[in-house]
UniProtKB/TrEMBL annotation:
It comes from Glycine soja. This is DUF962 domain-containing protein. Keywords: Membrane, Transmembrane, Transmembrane helix. The chain crosses the membrane at residues 29-51, 82-100. The keyword Cytoplasm does not apply. Pfam families: Mpo1-like. It comes from the Eukaryota.
Length: 116
């Protein structure tokens, strides 16, 4: 059973979100899922609406896999779906620009080193 957590702001949730994505491979799985979601959305607009089916499947599939099998925690989406989506895009942008490690340090977290 999930315990409801109350956050007063998106910035407060962001700190929690980053903590829930402490492993680099978790963040990479999210990046790949978000990238594929964006591509499938693009394909649905320009080629066929059938690609819309793959937008949530690829995004949530990659993200949830990383939480259950890599990070070992429950996806924040279950308790805070809208804020999780916003933070996923924020993390995607920070990773795309190479600023995610700096953001982790700003929040006082140390990136967890991983071999894989």
């Amino acid at each position: 059973m999930l315990k409801a957590m109350n956050f007063r702001s998106l910035e407060e949730f962001w700190a929690f979100y980053v903590n829930q994505h402490s492993m680099p491979s978790t963040r990479r799985w999210h990046f790949v899922g978000t990238l594929f979601s964006i591509l499938f959305l693009f394909f649905s607009v320009f080629f066929s609406w059938w690609f819309l089916f793959f937008v949530p499947l690829s995004g949530y599939g990659c993200a949830w896999y990383s939480h259950f099998f890599v990070e070992g925690n429950v996806p924040a989406t279950f308790g805070h779906p809208f804020w999780s989506l916003l933070c996923d895009f924020k993390m995607f942008g920070l990773m795309l620009t190479g600023k995610m490690d700096r953001e982790i340090k700003r929040l006082g977290k140390r990136p967890v080193l991983q071999v894989f």
